[in-house]
Description:
Blueprint: H1 3-24, E1 33-37, H2 43-51, E2 56-59, H3 62-70, H4 73-78, E3 84-87, E4 105-109, H5 112-125, E5 129-135, H6 151-159, E6 164-171, H7 179-197, E7 204-210, H8 217-222, E8 227-230, H9 232-235
Parallel strand pairs: 1-2, 1-8, 2-3, 3-4, 4-5, 5-6, 6-7
Helix pairs in contact: 1-2
Amino acid sequence: MTRAEDIAAHLHEVRDQIASAAARAGRAADSVRLIAVSKKMPASDVRAALAAGQLDFGENYAQELRDKRSSFEAEAAAGTPVPRWHYLGPLQRNKVKFLAGQVALIQSVADTDMLGEIDRRAEAAGADQDCLVQINIAGEAQKSGAPLSAVPALLDAFAAARRTWCRGLMLIPPLDADAGQTRRHFAALRALRDREAAISRPRVDLRELSMGMSGDFVEAIAEGATLVRVGTAIFGARVAG
């Protein structure tokens, strides 16, 4: 089996798992969108997944995303399908220029200062930018994400923005071998979304819940995930470094 055939086969398996999990939750399969996490994988792997029908891809490093995106310029010019990029990693002010107005979704906004920089760059690019707010649901000191206490003010800041929209919330839960414990965090994010969605704010439309990765996306779907971020189950182990 070639590398491309291997990726296509794994994509098929993951899609089947998503459809089954959605059905068990009483949801349509297309209510969950798969983000293929391609960080540290070559552009050739992205092309293989794209050929197998995958459109949404996630990257954690702004410069890597920039370089992969530029490698598809010829396809974009020809009007053929190109990846719909999602940025998943921690944000740095000097890297926002590679993202704002250039990716489908920035999933890791965690503070008002970074939101301001994204909004400024998006306005300069003359483009709207969709974002998610990343939540540090368990208050882990080593992990990015907005603390629960900061969420209302951050959503209020989106309401005052010019070119950015908040489309939902994102979570990277604590590592836990117990799927039940992980599922508890997913349920907490859904409850937070429901509370904040009851408050009407301009430019805030909390339709998306981005939660669940290769080891726990089935549990995430059971708790309402609309975006699942799957890398290893599609591409295999990542290159170290």
